[in-house]
Amino acid sequence: MKDQLTKEEVLHVANLARIEISEKEIEKYQLELKQLLNDVEKINEVEGYDNDILIACWSGPTNLRKDETGEMLNPNEVIKSAPRHSGNYIEVPVVISDGEGA
Q1: Nearest-CA neighbor of 31 among 9, 58, 63, 59?
Q2: Inter-axis angle of helices 23-45 and 7-16, to 10 degrees?
Q3: Contact call for residues 28 and 5 (beta carbons, < 8 A)
C-alpha cells in the first residue's frame, strides 16, 4: 500500500470540498489525507463494527398522529400574544451562538 495520495487525488478532494490549495499544501495533504484514510480503514477492520445506522434506541413501531386541518390562526393575534415581538416578527432567545457575545 502506498504511503501517500497522488497529487491528482489531493486536487480532486480539494475540488470536491470547493477549496483552493497551494503546491506546498498539496504535499502536506498527500501524507495527511492518506493517514486519515488509513485510520478509517482500521476502524472498519474492528470486529463487531458494522455500518448499521442507529436511528432510535427502540425498535417498536412509532405511533404518529394523523395530520388534521384546522382553522388558521390570525397572524396579528399570534404576534400580540407572543411574549416578545418586533413589528411582524416574534422574538425568541438565542439557541445557537457564533461565540462572539450574545
Answers
A1: 9
A2: 80
A3: no
